[in-house]
């Protein structure tokens, strides 16, 4: 009986020790709970925001402006951690980048180029707990919104300056691709120029790239050779303005203040300020009030789009004229695409007194009367 009792107690102690050991192992090896999308966020954790850029952050144009918005976000919100991937092509490669960023636990992913649209739609559906924002597109999902500015407002104003200071009545425009964004800006620029100089023509040369300084220089030279004495563009680098200055003609900047690159050439430019919008997106996500939408902000909306200071070459009286028109846009007294607006072939597109709808502007695929050039087929 003694032996049997001793064995039983030993066995019981062994079982108890084994149970404790197994329990400890189980607690140590249990993985932390996360969502399938990798976007879960514990209290006190920073919100992770990733940006995907089509060009380099140092282009001093479009991508530079977007990245300035990212830096603004970090400096104004201490609970935010940002990362970016630059030079991402508008191909299936970008889908892999968006997927990778979602899997790495980013809470918000911002794609900044039009050609990312369809890929972002697909990726957003696979990661429903991640918020996606796409710049300049028109497609949305439950967790994918779009954002852009009413750049055409500033383009109309800078077009006024170009129309005032051309002597040849020929303006040159460097364009990358025939997207609605680019076409809308060429049209608005032309309408603005024609408002002060009805004789103006705008000649368009396509570069087939968002950022290719060498090609942009060649395109700029070809437009100057064709008689253009004021150049504008919708590409990303200031090389066109440097070429204009070298050739003794004038230029209009785009996306950021490019005057430092060609101070004797640039008269004025449009400038984008994305920081406040990015900040609002993060606040909405943090407060769980974010909803998929299509943001289309104008000059009146905190400077998300505006014009740069004027060059001293622009006389004070005309500066006042442009500034007054800018105020009319802010006050809703003037809309750049107010009819009658005709296309290149003389077809009436916007009736007298009517205003182009956002739907028309976001999908526009025709040039206004006065533009010389054709839109390439996609």
What does it look like?
The protein is 40% helix and 18% strand. The chain is built from eleven helices and 15 strands. It has helices at 2-29, 62-76, 92-103, 117-126, 151-165, 180-196, 213-225, 239-247, 275-286, 316-330, 358-362, and strands at residues 47-52, 80-85, 108-111, 131-135, 144-149, 170-175, 201-206, 230-233, 250-253, 266-272, 294-297, 305-307, 341-342, 348-350, 371-372. The strands form three sheets. Strands 12-10-9-8-6-7-15 form a seven-stranded mixed beta sheet, sandwiched between helices. Strands 2-1-3-4-5-11 form a six-stranded parallel beta sheet, with helices on both faces. Helix 3 (92-103) packs parallel to helix 4 and helix 7 (213-225) runs parallel beside helix 8 (239-247). It is globular and about 60 Å long.
Q: Identify the overall geometry.
A: globular
Give the neighbour order of strands across the main sheet.
12-10-9-8-6-7-15
Radius of gyration, whole Å: 28 Å
Q: What is the average per-residue confidence, as pLDDT, rounded to a whole number?
A: 90
- Largest sheet geometry: 7 strands, mixed
- The N- to C-terminal Cα distance equals 94 Å
Strands, count: 15
């Amino acid at each position: 009986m003694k032996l049997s009792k001793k064995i039983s107690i030993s066995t019981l102690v062994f079982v108890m020790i084994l149970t404790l050991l197994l329990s400890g192992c189980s607690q140590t090896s249990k993985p932390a709970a996360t969502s399938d999308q990798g976007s879960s966020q514990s209290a006190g954790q920073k919100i992770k925001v990733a940006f995907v850029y089509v060009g380099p952050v140092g282009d001093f144009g479009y991508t530079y402006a977007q990245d300035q918005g990212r830096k603004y976000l970090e400096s104004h919100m201490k609970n935010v951690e940002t990362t970016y991937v630059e030079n991402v092509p508008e191909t299936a490669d970008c889908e892999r980048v968006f997927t990778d960023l979602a899997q790495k636990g980013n809470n918000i992913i911002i794609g900044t180029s039009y050609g990312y649209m369809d890929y972002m739609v697909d990726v957003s559906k696979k990661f429903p707990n991640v918020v996606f924002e796409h710049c300049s597109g028109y497609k949305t999902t439950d967790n994918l919104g779009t954002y852009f500015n009413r750049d055409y407002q500033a383009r109309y104003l800078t077009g006024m300056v170009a129309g005032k200071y051309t002597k040849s009545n020929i303006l040159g425009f460097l364009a990358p691709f025939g997207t609605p964004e680019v076409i809308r800006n060429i049209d608005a620029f032309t309408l603005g120029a024609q408002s002060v100089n009805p004789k103006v023509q705008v000649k368009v040369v396509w570069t087939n790239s968002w950022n290719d300084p060498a090609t942009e220089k060649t395109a700029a030279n070809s437009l100057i050779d064709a008689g253009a004495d004021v150049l504008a563009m919708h590409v990303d680098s200031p090389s066109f303005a440097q070429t204009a200055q070298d050739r003794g003609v004038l230029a209009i900047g785009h996306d950021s203040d490019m005057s430092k690159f060609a101070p004797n050439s640039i008269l004025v430019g449009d400038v984008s300020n994305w920081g406040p919008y990015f900040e609002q997106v993060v606040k909405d996500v943090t407060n769980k009030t974010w909803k998929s939408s299509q943001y289309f902000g104008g000059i009146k909306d905190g400077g998300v789009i505006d014009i740069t200071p004027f060059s001293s070459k622009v006389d004070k009286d005309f500066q006042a004229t442009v500034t007054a028109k800018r105020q009319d846009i802010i006050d809703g007294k003037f809309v750049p695409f107010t009819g009658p607006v005709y296309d290149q072939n003389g077809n009436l597109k916007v009736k007298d007194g009517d205003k182009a709808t956002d739907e028309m502007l976001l999908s526009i695929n025709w040039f206004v009367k006065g533009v010389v050039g054709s839109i390439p087929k996609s």
